[in-house]
Protein 1
Amino acid sequence: MDKKEEILKLLEADARLSAAEVAKAVGLSEEEVAKAIVELEKSGVIRKYKTVINWEKLGREKVAALIDVKITPEREHGYDAIAERIMRFPEVKNLYLVSGMYDLSVLVEGNTMKEVATFVAEKLAPLPQVTSTTTHFILKKYKEDGDMLYDGEELRRLAVSP
Amino acid sequence: MMRDKIARRVAQVPPSGIRKFFDLVANVEGVISLGVGEPDFITPWHIREACIYSLERGYTMYTSNYGLPELREEITLATKRDYGVDYSPENEVLVTVGVSEAFDLAIRALVNPGEEVLIPEPSYVAYKPCTIFAGGVPVSVPTRAEDEFKLLPEQLEAKVTPKSKVLVLSYPNNPTGATMSKRDLEAIADIVVEHDLVVISDEIYDKLTYEGKHVPFAALNGMRERCIYLNGFSKSYAMTGWRIGYALGEAEVIEAMMKIHQYAMLCAPIMSQKAALEALRRGNSVVEEMRQEYNRRRRLIVKRLREAGLECFEPKGAFYVFPSIASTGMSSEEFAERLLREEKVAVVPGNAFGEGGEGHVRMAYAASLRDINEAMSRLERFLSR
């Protein structure tokens, strides 16, 4: 694995590692690592640094829904024009063009069920290219972006062993 | 007055230094432990899942004494593929309850009372006691930090006597992290031939080699018939609790080991054998990922130990560093005890690994980068006091 990839792996697992800490683990100087990180940020390989939060633990429950959207594609633009329009809504967290029974898969988040339902009814469904929507409210999150959102698994090692 | 209850052979072996230290650590809260001789990864899910599936399917019985035929087949295929050494799955493989059992069987199968077993030190803690339990006589062969803890032919030669029968090799090494190159091993092989020795080679850390390519002793010219080659799943696949390993060797010696195994153990647990099969068939990418992670930690810990002012041989394999603490003027036990009490970092005193270990401590870097960093900061504070 090349050094850039190693730096990215480390930051992907823990974005709060300092350049000095990363440097020692990959065997480069702190300056070299800092420079590499700036380059990776500038070139857009590193998009941003985020925190995985289990909001439920705070009692701050957000409501999310996956919405299957059928679209009539437009001449010359295909799905891109309508997708760009939909993705600008801040309520939309994820947006994918998918194969199969429908065209766009939209993840929408809001503070209440009513908020999400209103968004679908007043913003999404009335768009002229949208021919139908099916809304699936998310009941429980088990895993998000590769992180498991529960505490079932932990390391159970003896403190000292041969 | 009752006569001595415990057999002298057992009574003469002192309690484990690691055990003693474990009891000490258990009484301290908030410890960062670098004293653990096992991976900090949980067994990859696909391996655990394969075991669960086998239980659902009803695989709960004894297996052949030698182990499941398909597992033996897979072990021999992997050994051939990785190292070019060829064993027959029919009668040259024995699946055991960890390499620990395999080592015990090998020693018992080979050693007559009074015969000597050459053990390079510092070494893993079980070799010496197992030799004594089997009626053999352990003979320490020193290895030194200035030689990168390699076993040197002249050091070995100096300890060979007419009673020498077995040489134990274990590279990559616990606790030093030393490895032996092909050329290093060839020099040892000459002595093995000259003095007609049998080698028990414990290569449990083979997949965790960071510099150079691992060469099994059995792969050397003429050494296959002189070598019992031990390996297992604990370290490379993070499967310590499954207790599953194997021995490879000529049919004669494997049969002798099987004779003991069939009466003492019967067979390795079938659920662990099923999991091991999955590990060999589909576990290789996970092994490589874990190796890369250990390698990052290795670089970090060596760098920080040296910055803290401890002399430290850069380990080439396994997941241990074995820095010298001679500069502190403390004994290894005193150092480990004070570091635990004053800074809550657990390391294992070097004298637990034999005579040559005094003046060193063993630190395992099977811990997260964050924990290693924190432990090293505490160590720096401890040393600057």
Protein 2
Amino acid sequence: MDGEISVGMGELEVTDDKEAVLATFVGSCVALCLYDPQAKVGGMAHIMLPDSSKDASGRGNAAKYADEALENTIGAMAEKGAQAGRLVAKIAGGAKIFAHEGSEDMFAIGTRNAESLRKLLQKRGIRIAGEDVGQTYGRWVRFNISSGQVKVGKRGREEKVL
Amino acid sequence: MVMMTSSLNETELKTLKDLLNSYIGRKTKPAFSMILGEEVEYSVRSMNLMHLQDIDGILLPFMNQEMCAIYLRAEGDVRIGMLLFMQESQALSLAAKLLGKDTLDRLDSMGKSSLAEVGNILLAGSVLNAISDSTGFRIDCSVPGFAIESLGAILGDPIAEIAVRTNSLILAGVELYAPKSNVRVYIFLFFGLDDIKKLLAHAKDG
């Protein structure tokens, strides 16, 4: 797709290009889409894990952890003219891909990612305008900067628009 | 303080491949052969160092391929993500064979459970056992998780869990093929760089 910018695992992209579409694929990871509708600046972060405080080393990717991803995305968007008070969020992903017959918590990394991000957004006073999280399947996420619309595609399921 | 390493040289990668060949040949191949009741062929297809920022590009062509997968997470002296996966048609053939049926149209709970058990035997019971025997490492293993999903979604959990500390991982790929049943399965093993260095330092072949 023309103008589509791929956002890799643990990475973030911010743009004010109104032709751009930020895109990623998430399973248990979460795609955070932040948008300033007035400045038409958008940012997408591909979050892999809920909390950087448990990581004693290995920093380097701007969006690996939910807490760092949120702050880094807000910071990068501010540099392009976005204002924190105008931001709205849309989130997708956080699936529990692997099912098993034991503890519910065993492979619940996706659930923890989504919960952590919700709390962080609430703490920052950023409204979640739409979300498609949980379940057991992967999702393609495409964030249109011109409209702020986020399209979520799933294998064998109808596309959802946030 | 934990020392982080950022790469492996060609000799280390070759030694690793030889070690894995030995583990699979001695433990996993006979185990799969016993499950199926026939001779099995195997091949260690790849042993690659992958950096987090490159993973999407490498895996993108395969992202939408639907697979049936069993995932086990091993933790202790080293952390290893272990994935057994196959195409759904292969999963149906394998489950049918395990359940003593000619064919299966869909994977019911018995079919899924039987495949999870195969994952348990091939990954925890053979690969992990071989690593533990060879190194003396104490390693605990999770119960098997089961999924039928795109490869992109399936790979997310092990990549996140292993690559998180060093932003890179070693991905070892193994193929097992049973010609008589025409069943082909794949094993991916995910190691962190520090853990692979530990393994190289402690492993005794044979």
